[in-house]
Prior knowledge:
mainly alpha, two-stranded antiparallel ribbon, membrane, transmembrane helix, two-stranded parallel sheet
Amino acid sequence: MSDDTARGWFGQPRGLTILFLTNMWEQFSYYGMRALLVYYMTKQLLMSQGHSSFVYGAYTACAYFTPIVGGVIADRLLGKRRAVIIGATIMALGHFMMAFEALFYVALATIALGNGLFLPSLPSQINDLYKAGDPRRGWAYNVYYVGINIGGFLAPLICGTLGELYGWHYGFGAAGLGMLAGLVIYLAGQRYLPPETPRAPTEDLPPMRWADHRRTFMVLGAIALCVTVFRGAYEQVGNTVALWADAGIDRAAGGFTIPMTWFQSLNPLMVMLMTPALLAYWRRRADAGRDTPPARRMATGALIVAAAYLMLAGVEWSSDARAGWIWLAIFFVIFTLGELFILPTGLGLFARLAPPRLGATTVAAWYLAIFTGSLSAGLVGTFWSRMDHGGFFALLAVIATVAAGLLRLLDRQVRAVDPTWIAKVD
Length: 426
C-alpha cells in the first residue's frame, strides 16, 4: 500500500471514499427505480396488487442471486475492477431500458445481470485497503453503509418526484444517469484503489481445502438462513409499506400533500443521522471492553425492527380512519435503528471471514441470503390483500422476532470462528 493511499480522507483511506461514492450512485439508481416500481406496475401497467408484489419480490431476489455467479467470475476470471466496470455498464443500460414499457421484463433482467458482477466486487475491495490489524477496518463497513443510504435518500426525492409529477419514464431515466455517475467516479479513482491480486490459472492454484473452512462456512450458512427469515419482514418497506403509504396514510401537511415516494427517503436519511452516534457508542463500549458480539448485535436489530412493525399494527387496530403521516415517520426511525444493528454487521462478518482468494465469492454469499429473503418477502407480500393490515404488520413483527431468536442461538458459534472473538471464546 502506498503512502498516498494510506493517507486518509475523514480518517479512512482515499480508496474507501471512491468505493463509497461509486456505491452511493449505484444505490441511487437502484432505489430510484425501486421507489417507482410497485407504483409503476399497479398504476401504469395495471397489474394486480398480488401480481405486482410477486414481480417485485422476484426481481429483488434475482438481483441478489446473480452476485453468486458474478462473484465467482470476478474471483476467477475478470478480477474485481473489471467486474465492477462491466457490471455498472450493463446496469446503466437496463435502467434506460425501463423507459420503454415493452422492455419492462427485459430491463429488469438486464439490471439483475449487471448487478451480479457489480455488487460482490465493490465491497470486497474494502479489506484490501487496510493492513492487517488496522483498527479502522472494523468501522469501514458502517462508513460504506452510509454511502449506500445517501444514494437511497436522494433517489426517491429525485427519481420518485420526477416519476410521480412528470412521468414514470423520467424517473427511470434519472436512475440510469445515477448509475453512469457511479461508473465515472470509479474509473476516475482507480489510482486510490487496492491493487488487483494476480489471478493464477486455476490449475496452478493449490486445492481448496474445504475441511479448513468447513466450520466457518456452516456458521455463515446459518447466519444466511436467519437473514433470509429477517428479510421476509424487512423488504416490505419497498413493497406493502409503500402501498400503505399511498392508500392508508393521510399525507396532508399544511395544505401540501406529501408525495408517497418521499417517505422512502426517511429510511436512508435516518441511517445518515444515526450512524455517527451509533459508531461513537460502539467505539466507547469496545474501548471499555464491553463490545457486543456480532450475532447478538444482529439479534438486537431484528427485535427493534419487530417493534417497529408491531407499532404499525397497533396504529391500524386503534382507528378506522387513515393514520397520520407522523406514524409512518416514527416507524422509519425505529425501523432504521434496527437495520443499523443487523445489516452492516452481517456484511462485515461475511467479508471478514472470507477465505483467501474467495473474497468476492464469500461476499456474494451474503447477497444470496438477500436473494432468498427477497423471495420470501415477495410471497409474504401477497398476504397484504388477503388479511387485515393490522394483522399483516403483526405477522411481520413475528417474522422479525423469529429471526432474532435464531441469531441469538448462534452467538457462541459465531464468536468461535470470528478472529475478533476467538481469544475471548478460548
